[in-house]
């Protein structure tokens, strides 16, 4: 429903299979929007049951994808993310049940008042409408995204990677059967037809049919969607996260937070990629930090001062000289950039210059430093004396997340169910007209 | 601060004047973000005073624009919108004082809790950063937009139309002097240099420097920005608004609401453009409606049934046969499309098919009809027994508005100060690390 474009619904049924899917999704979305929570939860529980009952069918399809990936020489870590097992399917089904147990955001009155002229004004949450998700390898996203969209009253168009096409096709078949069986429109969940890049391009042009696109995956996918889509996009996921250790800091705590932030799981967007250390504490802290990083198997890309301190102390750390590029790199590996900074403000300047705006942590015992850092750093999440790894919908208590937005518009940080909604105003009068 | 693009701030100062302005705006935004309300209000009051003190200088510049517009044969209504007078400048200054009196959205804790592990989680409002406004003729928008952006802690890049370039240049000079004089960075308010289309294009490519673009003006401007910008956009303003008169309705009320919605001010986005009438009441209501519309000077573009009823009753109305195009036209003139529909659901289908998603009103005495209409219609505002003209930040009690969003992402409907903000999460622990 877009204002400056001709109504896409007024056209006869479009020729392209992608646009036909979007057309049907829009009709399904209109049916979903007014549904009460109970109807949506029933469909979600039916999905969870169906995933377990039809596990065999899903695993067979997944085996095809896995065989194809192996034949194509795909790395084992990617093959692992692609692979489904009975346990994984059970866990996915449980996640769907957990989504059913979450409160329904739709209908929530966000704001309401009686205006001076007696009109009652209410702003209420409504579904976004049609949500397009463009994602890479992991087939569990297919079910997660569908469950979150259904719960929030949205129809979903799923565009997974071609490497998971057989798995996604089987999963979506199971989902649609369950949704239809529960009396909801099956077209609320659709796999975008076609495995080609062209189908993504069509999705990106479907303004007025698709209300938002959420790309989840590597930087190049996200960049393409952000640059080319005329459908509104929520940018997700890239995380060049920083840990700053202030002049006054508990060094044991700083080491623990650093190692947890960097090395507890290196492939995720909330892992730390840069360490900044206040110059006054560098000599005391860096030898300990470098030893701990070495023990965790992390290579340090250090600035001049870090390299100097590393060679002075015998920490066993692997330290290489950093180049400018290191400051903006999201390694997603056992690597970290490290620099000594003059003071807190210099740390903030470094962060503002290089961050992807995801999560930055400060370790400090100073209340003034904590306050200044949280005021000046402008990222989705600022952590004080806590690991960067906490930026996560589950950790934040949202129950589930559809992604982590790194943009400022609409949603920022972990996105739960409310972030999959918009609002509308309801104005109730008894014959009110406007004076001017 | 964008995640998948290289940091624009890491480049040396860009060559293009537009990007240099954006670069300086970003630096100013970093200074504005942590400012307390008092500092921002002081700057706003300084602006209001300066506008009054320097009225002469502003009027002289405006006279240039007006002379140029007249010489170019611009219509008098456009010239009128371009023209400033001492009274208008006083009114603009008063609007700025009103903005100063509004609460500051920045720092508001939107959500907060202590997580099961003891971490304190707070989601707080922060400025968006750099807001770009692309707008047409009216120079008062220059001051309004700057005041709202400053109050919400944002730097603003103003790109007015070339027809108001002298006026905007003078106004921005006054604004910058006042802002600088109050101790805030003058670069928080900048006119985008250059009068060419190219400067708009550069603004639309400045992702990572500009956080949001808000186009305000005609459909073609908005369409261009939506289609071409890689900076996130908030689509504003187009209004193909509907008034639906239900089978059970107070006909006096229905006529009043229809005439107020259509004819109290035809050039605005919340004016009604289509009348839908339930078939059961058409014979009783339409003759009265047509007579009232005729009296208000409104031409009716009717469907077959409307044309038929108009010729049966002698209402004096000017009625022409509607074409498909009429259903999607935002006339912004003394014209209205009109159709008779089978029932409420048919009205909803018509609206969903043709609306721009701005505002739709129902006139009914039936609680069930009001409830169904508000549930099924998906527009920024649904009015029950009230004029469409109420969709307005001032009318809603927001104090001011930067525009009316007709998109679903980020903001929907009239946008006040909170809609010029984003949020960030602050995670406070005492050494918390994540288990998995």
Automatic annotation (TrEMBL), chains A, B:
Annotated localization: Cytoplasm
Catalytic activity: L-glutamate 5-semialdehyde + phosphate + NADP(+) = L-glutamyl 5-phosphate + NADPH + H(+)
Its job: Catalyzes the NADPH-dependent reduction of L-glutamate 5-phosphate into L-glutamate 5-semialdehyde and phosphate. The product spontaneously undergoes cyclization to form 1-pyrroline-5-carboxylate.
Gene3D superfamilies: Aldehyde Dehydrogenase, Chain A, domain 1, Aldehyde Dehydrogenase, Chain A, domain 2
Protein name: Gamma-glutamyl phosphate reductase
EC number: 1.2.1.41
A biological process term (GO) from this entry: L-proline biosynthetic process
NCBIfam families reported for this sequence: PRK00197.1, proA
One GO cellular component term: cytoplasm
Ranges of residues in domain Aldehyde dehydrogenase: 18-299
SUPFAM superfamilies reported for this sequence: ALDH-like (SSF53720)
Protein family (similarity comment): Belongs to the gamma-glutamyl phosphate reductase family.
InterPro entries: Ald_DH/histidinol_DH (IPR016161), Ald_DH_C (IPR016163), Ald_DH_N (IPR016162), Aldehyde_DH_dom (IPR015590), G-glutamylP_reductase_CS (IPR020593), Glu-5-SA_DH (IPR012134), GPR_dom (IPR000965)
Keywords: Amino-acid biosynthesis, Cytoplasm, NADP, Oxidoreductase, Proline biosynthesis
Gene it is expressed from: proA
UniProt main location, coarse: cytoplasm
Coiled-coil residues: none
Molecular function, one GO term: glutamate-5-semialdehyde dehydrogenase activity
A Pfam family assignment: Aldedh
HAMAP family, per database record: ProA (MF_00412)
This protein's pathway: Amino-acid biosynthesis; L-proline biosynthesis; L-glutamate 5-semialdehyde from L-glutamate: step 2/2
Lineage: Bacteria, Bacillati, Actinomycetota, Actinomycetes, Kitasatosporales
């Amino acid at each position: 429903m877009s204002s400056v474009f001709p109504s896409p619904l007024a056209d006869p049924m479009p020729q392209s299979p992608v646009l036909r899917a979007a057309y049907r999704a829009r009709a399904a979305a209109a049916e979903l929007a007014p549904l009460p929570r109970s109807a949506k939860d029933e469909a979600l529980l039916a999905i969870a049951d169906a995933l377990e009952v039809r596990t065999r069918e899903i695993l067979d399809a997944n085996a095809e994808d896995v065989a194809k990936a192996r034949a194509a020489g795909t790395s084992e870590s990617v093959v692992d993310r692609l692979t489904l097992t009975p346990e994984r399917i059970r866990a996915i089904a449980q996640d769907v049940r957990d989504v059913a147990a979450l409160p329904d955001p739709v209908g929530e009155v966000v704001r309401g008042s009686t205006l001076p002229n007696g009109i009652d004004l209410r702003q209420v949450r409504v579904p976004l409408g049609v949500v397009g998700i463009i994602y890479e390898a992991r087939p569990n996203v297919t079910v997660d995204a569908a469950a979150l969209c259904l719960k929030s009253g949205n129809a979903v168009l799923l565009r997974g990677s071609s490497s998971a096409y057989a798995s996604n096709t089987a999963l979506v078949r199971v989902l649609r059967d369950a949704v239809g069986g529960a009396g909801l429109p099956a077209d609320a969940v659709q796999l975008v037809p076609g495995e080609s890049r062209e189908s993504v391009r069509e999705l990106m042009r479907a303004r007025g049919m698709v209300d938002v696109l959420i790309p989840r995956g590597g930087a190049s996918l996200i960049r393409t969607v952000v640059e080319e889509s005329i459908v509104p996009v929520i940018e997700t996921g890239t995380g060049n996260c920083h840990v700053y250790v202030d002049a006054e800091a508990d060094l044991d705590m700083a080491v623990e937070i650093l190692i947890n932030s960097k090395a507890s799981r290196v492939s995720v967007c909330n892992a730390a990629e840069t360490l900044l250390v206040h110059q006054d504490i560098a000599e005391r802290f860096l030898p300990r930090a470098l030893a701990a990083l070495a023990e965790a198997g992390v290579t340090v890309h250090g600035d001049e001062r870090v390299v100097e301190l590393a060679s002075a102390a015998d920490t066993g750390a692997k330290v290489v000289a950093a180049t400018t590029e290191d400051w903006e790199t999201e390694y997603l590996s056992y690597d970290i950039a490290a620099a000594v900074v003059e003071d807190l403000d210099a740390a903030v300047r470094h962060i503002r210059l290089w961050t992807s705006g995801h999560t930055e942590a400060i370790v400090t015992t100073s209340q003034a430093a904590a306050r200044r850092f949280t005021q000046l750093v402008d990222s989705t999440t600022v952590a004080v004396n806590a690991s960067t790894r906490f930026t996560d919908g589950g950790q934040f208590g949202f129950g589930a997340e559809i992604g982590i937005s790194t943009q400022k518009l609409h949603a920022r940080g972990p996105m739960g169910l409310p972030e999959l909604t918009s609002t509308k105003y309801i104005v109730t009068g008894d014959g009110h007209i406007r004076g001017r």
